[in-house]
Amino acid sequence: MNWRYPLQLPEHNEREFARVVVDRNGRTLRAFPDALGVWRLPVTLEQIAPAYLQAVIQYEDRWFYFHPGVNPVAIARAAWQNLRCGCVVSGGSTLTMQVARRLYPHTRDMRGKLQQALRALQLEWHLSKDEILALYLNYAPMGGVIEGVEAAAQMYLDKPAADLSLSESALLAVLPQAPSFLRPDRHPQRARAARDKVLRRLLRFQAIDNAAYQQALLDPVFGRQPATPQQAPLLARLLIQAYPQQRLIRTTLNGDLQRELSQQLQRDIQLLPRQHSAAVLVVHNPSHQVRAYIGTADFGDSQRLGHVDMVQAIRSPGSTLKPFIYGLALDQGLIHGASLLTDAPRLRQQYQPGNFSAGFSGPVTPQQALHFSLNLPAVQVLEALTPARFYAALSNAGFHYQLPLAARPNLSLALGGGGVSLWELGMLYSSLMNQGQLFPLQSVQQPITAQANQVPRPLLTPAAAWVTADWLRNPLPDRSRSVAVIQPRSFGWKTGTSYGFRDSWAIGITPEYTVGVWFGRPDGTPSPGYFGAVTAMPTLQRVITMIDRQPHWPAPPSQVQQINACWPLGRLASSTPSDQCHRSVSGWSIRQLVPPTLPDSANPIAANPLPVLVNQQGQRINARCENDGKNSTRRLIQLALWPVILESWIPAAQRLSHQLPAPAPGCESSLIIGRTLQITGIEPGEHIRSTQRNSAGERQLPNLALGANGGVGMRYWYINGIYRGSSAERHVLTIPLRRNGEQHIVLIDDQGNSDRMTVYAD
């Protein structure tokens, strides 16, 4: 046997601590008691307020650091006082003896007292004074199943032991003397009298001055009813499983914010049916730390499946990934802020989605496309970027976009054709405020986790990240379809709705915070009528206002410039001839890149601008035309072409059929020019009413009898953004309307020629 251990000290079970998850300030979020249901939270001397340590030593055992575990003077004094009184006035137990009694229980007779004294001597032999004091502070009885100063501070006072005031320290220092009798939540008057007794002793022993004493006496005594903390219960459960050996897990959460947002979400969810839930994630962008984690709207509500963590659940992201399609395309020189994008039906394409809202907007910029969450421009840009490159860029940056089994990246990625979690979306959007770098999110404080997995990965350049974030600073969503000038807001946002109304998303960014909100049913059942802009967006607005009321938007990086570009070519206005600049549009550019408008896949004419050879009279000719030997009079003009499918959205004078000079007599042209397409059968602005009534006597919705003049090949009809059928030349198509009110009709032929009009069903 080692010479230091002549008396072997029996081991006690040091793992009999509750497992506790605390916020960044040390306040309990959720705790899991030991096997016996005891709430004992581990704490070290350094984590306890000095006032409490002083109160314990002065009141319980002034000579603690001098005696060998047993204080004969204290025992003799206690015996004499008790003998004179004929009752128990005081005890002679030292702090070491009290620790011995807690760790090694004994009988209350003389033999038990002797055993307690011997165990105290053993403890002093084996442990240092600070180690013994730490045991006392962790095991002291504090009432009921509460043991130790940290558990008492958290349960009764809702604060860590490190934050105890002088009066609170005195209150908890005396509590182990009679835990049930002095509980502040049940007997505040008794607890106050006992606290004041401790304060008087501290004053008498000159441990505190009279001013501190008088101030402490004024503090009220109040203890809340101990209850199991249930803040961030789902994150706590996740961390307890992730760190099974860790008794105390310090998170990065702000406990006050966590509580406030949890209560707000419980109020918001009352507006939805009983089976719905919600989740909120708040990320501090500079530190990449999670400040609030609400994985469910109501943890205790089984109807809302409150046990399901919707921060980690894999769901369809809807439109929330569109900004990163535009950001990557911007970085790779495919578009700029004033690029001409097309919001119109996709002809002869395998993937032909519609827009979430009825109708089409025609020519739009990237910011306008993001503002109205238009599907078709996003698919157009993703097609140019390619789904494979988009998916690879996300994966290489550490973002996990889960595809269906055996699926390959395709154009549906733009509209949520895969699965992500709110956690991943929070990390992704936070990169826009971290110069395009994706940092793994942190929910626990170091050193629990290693720094090795905290290395950021690049997704966008700083310039592209700034522009993408700025594109999100749009007016709050409304029912307007206008693409007028957009005034920037103080925060960026994006909403999303997955297929079948299963998921409603709203993501917001400020320089300081990223906030993600999800609403829906955890079981994946569709919720028609509930979508991001009306379901999740109001909650996002409240959260942003709560945490960052007046964010200061950063200035653009040096590689970002404001440009004026000309539509339809998309080139700089300063380098575009005036006759080719049909519309001047301003926007951001990065690294002085001003790529031309994306190719028009529906246009059989490849060149843009289109070179056209004309004679002296301005008539169209070609190189094989006879010209009476006057070749010197030939000249070449350049015609700026709009995408064919957008021609019904632009002034007639800018359409190809109007720009193109008339052919010279007898001079054939190789140009394929379609005939002008025009809707017939109705007039723009016409009001249509049915005379038919149903069996209940209600007026039925009218039918539209639609025909067309001109055009090439089949005609394709869209009403309110939805494909309703096709018709051949000189054929009238009858289409029953599905609702009253404004009806947006778009007609397209096989060559991409289009016409559109608006009528009204009464």
Round the mean pLDDT to the nearest integer and report it.
Answer: 85
Query: What value does the Rg take, in angstroms?
Result: 38 Å
Biggest sheet features: 5 strands, antiparallel
How far is the first residue's CA from the last residue's CA?
Answer: 100 Å
Uncertain regions spanning at least 5 consecutive residues: 1-6, 479-486
Q: What is the count of helical runs? A: 20
Helix content: 25-40%
Given helix and strand content, the structural type is: alpha+beta
Strand content: 15-25%
Would you spell out the secondary-structure blueprint of this structure?
Blueprint: E1 19-22, E2 28-32, E3 39-40, H1 50-60, H2 72-85, H3 95-103, H4 110-126, H5 129-139, E4 146-147, H6 149-157, H7 166-174, H8 188-204, H9 210-218, H10 233-242, E5 248-250, H11 255-269, E6 277-284, E7 289-294, H12 322-331, E8 341-343, E9 362-364, H13 366-371, H14 375-385, H15 387-396, H16 422-430, E10 437-438, E11 457-458, H17 462-471, E12 492-497, E13 503-509, E14 513-520, H18 532-535, H19 537-547, E15 560-567, E16 571-572, E17 583-590, E18 610-614, E19 620-621, E20 635-639, H20 656-659, E21 678-680, E22 687-688, E23 703-709, E24 715-719, E25 722-727, E26 733-736, E27 741-749, E28 754-761
